[in-house]
Sequence to fold (587 residues):
Amino acid sequence: MPDATHVVVGIKWGANVFASFEFENKENYQKKYIEGILQANMEKIALSIKGSGSVQFTEDENQLKTSLSIKFFGDIIPQDEELPQTFEKTLELMKKVPSYLTKFNNGKGKPLEYTLYPLKNVEKFFQLETRIKRTLIDLNLETITLLEKEFDDLLQAKQKFNDFYNEVNENSDFVASDNLGEIYKKSHQIKTCEAAFREQIATKLVEVRSGTKKPITIEKILTKFHEKPGFIMDISAFIEKYTKLITTIKQIAVFKENKIIYLGKRDASDVLPMQNNGDIYLFYMNEELKIRNNQLYEDSYHYFLDLVRDVEKKQSKFVIIDYNIHPEVKTKKEIKICYYRNGKLVADDLYKSKKESLSWCIAKSQLTSSTLRKPATTTKLSIPCAGIKLNYHCPREKKTWTCEKCQTSIEYGYDNTFYCSCGGAAAESYSFKCSSPLHPDEFLTFTKDDLERYLPNKDAENEVNILLLGETGVGKSTFINAFINYLTFSSLEEAAKEELRAGIFTKFIITDDNCMERTIKIGYDDNECTGEGQSSTQYAKAHVFHIDDLTLRIIDTPGIGDTRGIEMDKQNLQNTLSYISNYGHLN
Fold:
């Protein structure tokens, strides 16, 4: 062997057996705390194997033992026995290793260590001359230290990435597909980069030690790899980039404890409200919106948590939907809380409504029934706050009241019952909270006698009833829609910037700049029909407007001259007469 440098002068026989203990830090303990307990456990294992007396474990050490994943590696692992999966069984196996060794290779085991002696010392000792041409250059301590540090740093970076990767992989249902793909790609890149690094270092070490290359080439390799994607600095930067993702993943466990559903990719977001009866609150957001408008996010999020903690909403469902995980969501991409009841949208942006409601006077009842039908004649509830009877200095003037839950105006049916979109409930079951800063942070109630004193008398009510009659298609429903928008907006410019309000379904045709006819549809109502020549309104229906103390009721009716014939006209007229008989007068 012309390149030989040493001769083997001794061999140490035996066997190596390794037990690997892996702890998955699901409870997010401090790293130093876990390392301390693991180290104490390992030291006690060593003492136990040596037989140095009995070993006692602390409560924390015993608890950690049950969370360990155990693997075995070695030269003489028994093939005919089941490998242990508990801490105690592992100790038993380790103690039996010497007895296994006696049955392996005539009790010798495998070569564990070789003692080498330099050939140049052999030459001197035996005064021999050799013809071996050899050049072996020792690496300087600085290069060795540099390489050791590099491999230690790489190992540490890989360990951090593996922890990050495993956490993401276990929660992949809550990670956007684009992010997941990027993380999987980075994992492959890190493995490829490490393999190339090891290969180049191994090749250069041989070249440097044989004298064909200078040690500086190793430093050049390190500098080159520091700039490569998938190496130490890049790994740290990549993990840092996804810090907020890991925070969200950890937060999901907290959400679950608080009965909040963080909607994963396997669940469809669009059918969620329709699949649930009762109340459901959907909090829409994503990381980009959170950064762009952090204050709105924080305010909305804390309001959402307040809803969760509200004891009155114990039967409600609370869901967080991330636009990045659910790109199929059709709603406008903005931070908001949508509120549904029995599959129907009640509030498209509950927090926005809440902010607006700071100027509202709100009332609520625990006895609301959705089966109560609102009578034909109602008026907007206009009474003072209950605080005036309890010495809370609330303003004495009459207020209009909004339902806390559905956020629609409360109406009085002259039957000792209040009505809103939720349904209806007995008037005395309601409690009130006005917008005055003097009102305490609670809802207040009237006595039955006091409340009756403030409720309006039907005969004294200032009420105007207008009946609309006309030919089919003349525009009765369109007039009512126009009137709604007239009352809603203060100017044409303001109306043009907002969505049109539609109390009644309306359809009309316009001709565009290219002389093409376009059909425009506004609103939806099962009381409207779009058949040509037929009366669009199918039966009489009242639309109520409250203007100061005046209740204005416009009654829309089926058109006269229906193409389905005179019998249809008679039926429509009978329907109209029957409907207006509910009212005491027409103006």
